[in-house]
Amino acid sequence: AMDLDGLKAVLAAMHDGRIRCVAVDTTTPSAFAHELINAKPYAFLDDAGLEERRARAVQLRGVLPDAELGEAGRLSQEAIDEIRQEIWPDIRDEHELHDLFCALVVVPVETLCRPGARDWDIFLARLERSGRVLTAKRREMAYFVAAERAQWLSQLWQDVDFSVEMLKIPGEIPQDSDILRKTLQGWLQITGPVTSAAIAAQLGVDPTAVFQQMVHLESSGTILRGVFEGRHGRESVPDTEIEWCERRILQRIHRRTLATLRKQIEPVTPAVYMRFLLDWQHLGEQRQVSGEQGLLEVLRGLEGFEAPAAEWERSILPQRVAGYDPRWLDALCLTGTVGWGRISPHAAFTDAADGNGNRGPRRVVPTSMAPVTFFIREEALWMDLCLSQRQIPETNLNACLSDLANRIRSLLGDRGAMFAGDLIRTAGAPGEEVHRALWELVAAGVVNADGFDSLRVLIDPRRKRAFTGPGSTKTSARHASGRWALLAEPEEPVPVGELKHRDAEAAAGAAARRDQQIESACRMLLRRYGVVVRDGLARETTVPPWRELAGMFRRLEARGIVRGGRFVSGFGGEQFALPEAADALRSNRARTLADMPALTLAAADPMNLVGIVIPGERPASIAGNTVTLPLPLTEVETAVIEMPAPQTFAFGATPLEGGAIA
Asked: What is the arithmetic mean of pLDDT over 265-284?
């Protein structure tokens, strides 16, 4: 790993020309590129922190090697066999057989022994009598060749012998490499996945020469390499054992594999799905995790879901993490792994009509009901999309926030992140007023802090009194660790209609960035639900519209990352699942809610899907409300089951009692 002498020798050889550098376009990043992206802190020469590395923002998606991918994304052998039978030519007369021989260039005599070529001998006899097909021999192998390709074969093999004299047909004869490439291209159209060694043995040619032409065809986009039928994903193989498949045929095999996978899964009932969700979210019996790493796993499944700030450490996290310790969450936040804040826009910033028909923004009222969420900083591309779509006009910010809140917002914008004590000193306001202004900004989704303890200070009435202003006679309490900062909003996205008027490279980069953000939102939902049903997203406030999610889910399905199909009965539209989640759902179809002991959840918990997945009346998602699963039988029997209203998934506010808005 630290062979400096070897490195110097390589660099010197590159400098004097003994090692030649060749630029190669590849379909995936090289292993060396992965090492650069995933380099540890000691690989860099400066002293910057790991969280400041721009390399950590680079996503390596869809490039898992077969050694790690395993059976996920593997093509179905049944689909390969079916497509092979379908692409084998169905010859109806001697003219079609002659055209096939022209495309294949050379056809071994043993080909007539295949089940699909049993009737070819009749047509072949007619072609031989008319002189349109010749028989050739080379090294104890016999071939059929169309008269128009005899000169090609003679050019390719100098030692070939023909049964009759070869006719001289005017026209330019291709080079040896071109003849072999056209031969391989013809055979790949009717064979499906094949290795260079296998097709070389069939045609009686050099496997190395075949591999070279395969690489040439790959560079032109005609064929693709991969692991289709072999099981050598964990071992390196010789070049001649690499599998190849014609692009069009591979697409057909891929579609057939997806169709086969969808047919394998019989939909389960909503009650089984609900029981699966509770286990998936570590709420079932003996499903809790423990420790700081367990908490991080739980937060990965909860990120993006907004719940009242007071409810997170009261019930949502302790029910999933055994022996929950708030210090674990502080450590994750202060190390830059996890962040928190309100992502959806506050309803007060939108225009609201009053009784006289006038429209105008309303004031933000901070309460403990204000919704906040967590996000994994390294992976939260979905958050960038949400923040870019919630652009708030400056006039609305000034109208909805108090004067002190706007002053603190300006201070954070001008000076960057600041400690609570610095804000109290710089703003020149009492600590209690600064505390209220910060809470107002948190509820509005404008600021957040490094540590979650800063939010506890705002929520806990006993700790609120610890804020004291300058000149106070009380002993100033230690403030929560971490600094306050603006919840940065990315630049406003460029409308699709304007992209064509901009630089093509910039437009492509913007489109690729948005695709990454949509994919991040899809992966977030898959981590939360395992099996994503459109109706189950009714309480999501930070996800794009379903039409965009569905398109990305289909692309992930085509890449073998997720499975599409009908997993849960009673819901319309497409459904998508992680492979491991689909297997778990299928294997636990006998477990329903009726079999589990009573479980009391906060009404604000994301697994409160009463009235969405299972019938019943769902309580309001406010702090203090609870729901017990399974529901009493009488309540389920009398519940009115209605189809959920179509969801637009626009970012909205969380309603509170009495019409207040958090």
From this structure: 90
